[in-house]
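seq:
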Amino acid sequence: MANLDQSLLEQAEVICKSRGVRFTPQRKRVYELICANEGASSAYDLLEKLKQSEPQAKPPTIYRALDFLLEQGLIHRVESENSFISCCSCSVNKHYSHLLICDQCGNVTELQDDSLIALLENNAEKHGFRITNHVIETHGTCHKCLGDMKVQDR
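struct:
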């Protein structure tokens, strides 16, 4: 896999080993497929790609692998698209992120902004609310697609 950042894979292996959970070849392969994609991957896209190396793979195979990867914090679910991306901070056990989703090309960028999280927690506290989870997804157009649009407008 030419697009795969080997350090991400090594980091995932270390994390799983330190937690005493099995990073099976199948889980590893699904993680590789997610990491190699710039955009978000749906479960069925992943299944089709997995079938190239494992023709017997079925939907439960993918869903079990995705559940494991989500549980370990190695990937994020893009709720609005029911798809998955690799986590840029998988060494942090529990964290919140903000996803920028390009509606043109499907690229997803994960941001970590502690000031935004603090603001959300502060606002929730003012209302007597305790946050247990949140999903922040912002849809729009990435810089690459904006550049392509400017070229087309000429």
